[in-house]
C-alpha cells in the first residue's frame, strides 16, 4: 500500500541540493557527497561539488568540501578566474533552512549601482524544491 505522506526528495541527503538566498538573489547548488555537478561555463574542468551564482560577480565553484557532522560542513569556493577564494561554513538549521557563513573576510562581490560591493558575510538560505 502506498503512503500518502509527502516525503522530501533529499531528506536522506541533506548535503545535496540547491539553496537560495531570497534577499540577495544568490543560489548555491551543491553535492558534498560526490563531484556530480557541471559548473555553467566551466564544463571543460569536469564535474565538481557545486557552484554559487546569481547576484554575484562571476560563478564561484566549490573546489573542496568537508562534511564535519550531520549539521555542519566546510566548503571552499573559487571564482571563475581562480584568482579569489572564499572559505565558508554551511550549517543546516532545519530541513529547509541553511546558514552560509563566509570566513576570513568576504571576497565574494556583487554589482550594486555600478560598483562591486561585498555580499553579506552571513546568508540565510532556503532549500529549493528544484535540484
Report on this model:
- There is one protein chain.
- This protein is mainly beta and 131 residues long.
- The chain has strands at 16-21, 26-31, 50-54, 60-67, 72-79, 85-92, 97-103, 109-112, 115-118, 122-127.
- The chain has an eight-stranded antiparallel β-barrel.
- β5 (72-79) and β6 (85-92) form a beta hairpin.
- It is globular.
- The two termini are 28 Å apart.
- Mean pLDDT is 90; it is low at 1-9.
Question: Can I get a quick summary?
Answer:
With 131 residues, the protein is mainly β. It is built from no helices and ten strands.
What class would the helix/strand composition place it in?
Answer: mainly beta
Sequence of strands across the biggest β-sheet: 1-2-3-4-5-6-7-10
Order of helices and strands: EEEEEEEEEE
What is the chains' assembly state?
A: single chain
Question: In angstroms, what separates the terminal alpha carbons?
Answer: 28 Å
Number of strands: 10
What is the general shape?
globular
**What percent of residues are in strands?**
over 45%
Question: Ranges with pLDDT <50 over ≥5 residues?
Answer: 1-9
Q: C-alpha Rg, in Å? A: 15 Å
Keywords:
single chain; 8-stranded antiparallel barrel; two-stranded antiparallel ribbon; 10 strands; 47% strand; globular; disordered N terminus
Write the layout of secondary structure elements.
Blueprint: E1 16-21, E2 26-31, E3 50-54, E4 60-67, E5 72-79, E6 85-92, E7 97-103, E8 109-112, E9 115-118, E10 122-127
Antiparallel strand pairs: 1-2, 1-10, 2-3, 3-4, 4-5, 5-6, 6-7, 7-10, 8-9
Amino acid at each position: 500500500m502506498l503512503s500518502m505522506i509527502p516525503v522530501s526528495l533529499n531528506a536522506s541527503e541533506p548535503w545535496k541540493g540547491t539553496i537560495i538566498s531570497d534577499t540577495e538573489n544568490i543560489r548555491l547548488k551543491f553535492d558534498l557527497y560526490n563531484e556530480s555537478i557541471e559548473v555553467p561555463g566551466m564544463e571543460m574542468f569536469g564535474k565538481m561539488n557545486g557552484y554559487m551564482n546569481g547576484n554575484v560577480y562571476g560563478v564561484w565553484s566549490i573546489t573542496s568540501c568537508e562534511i564535519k557532522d550531520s549539521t555542519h560542513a566546510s566548503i571552499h569556493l573559487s571564482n571563475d578566474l581562480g584568482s579569489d577564494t572564499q572559505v565558508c561554513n554551511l550549517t543546516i538549521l532545519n530541513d529547509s533552512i541553511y546558514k552560509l557563513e563566509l570566513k576570513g573576510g568576504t571576497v565574494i562581490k556583487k554589482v550594486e549601482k555600478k560598483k562591486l560591493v561585498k555580499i553579506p558575510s552571513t546568508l540565510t538560505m532556503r532549500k529549493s524544491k528544484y535540484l
